């Protein structure tokens, strides 16, 4: 007889629990879109409720405040970023991994799925600083990117004179780069062309070769 311990299958969630989760997911998706379009300060709880098609009172059964709403959306994006990093082939050159992250970030932004980062004095920033899930995800992403930045500087593919933290923040800035929207509004370039142009300016600079 096998000595392996048989594990019970996970308990199936009730229909009510499934509906609750589905509504919560819809709320977070709506918040994500509104944060991407308008930013935290301009977004209102009424707009979120209207977009999901529920009463404001029903929304508060899931999230207690505007800050909680936005923090949940930011956590979702952070987890998505961690999953993307997990999908990368780490045998690739560090510079290519960094480029893949920058490209992915801009693709998500152009798809309208990247919430605007909170300002220094934003109430959302304060809520995120005490959100364990968000901070854990941020540290995971920062640690991995930081290691790739240092490796790319060591092999000469990134400027060694730049502090790694400056490079890291430059990459994070691609998540809210207004240049993408400006170029798209011009109507003269496709999204892939826009990303290629910003990638060139970010990694190769603006100097003529």
UniProtKB/TrEMBL annotation:
Record-linked InterPro entries: DNA-bd_HTH_TetR-type_CS (IPR023772), Homeodomain-like_sf (IPR009057), HTH-type_TetR-like_transc_reg (IPR050109), HTH_TetR (IPR001647)
Alphabetical list of Gene3D superfamilies matching this protein: Homeodomain-like (1.10.10.60), Tetracycline Repressor, domain 2 (1.10.357.10)
Residues covered by the HTH tetR-type domain: 21-81
DNA-binding residues: 44-63
Signal peptide: none
Superkingdom of the organism of origin: Bacteria
Transmembrane feature ranges: none
Keywords, sorted A to Z: DNA-binding, Repressor, Transcription, Transcription regulation
Protein name, per record: TetR/AcrR family transcriptional regulator
Species in which this protein is naturally found: Hydrogenophaga defluvii
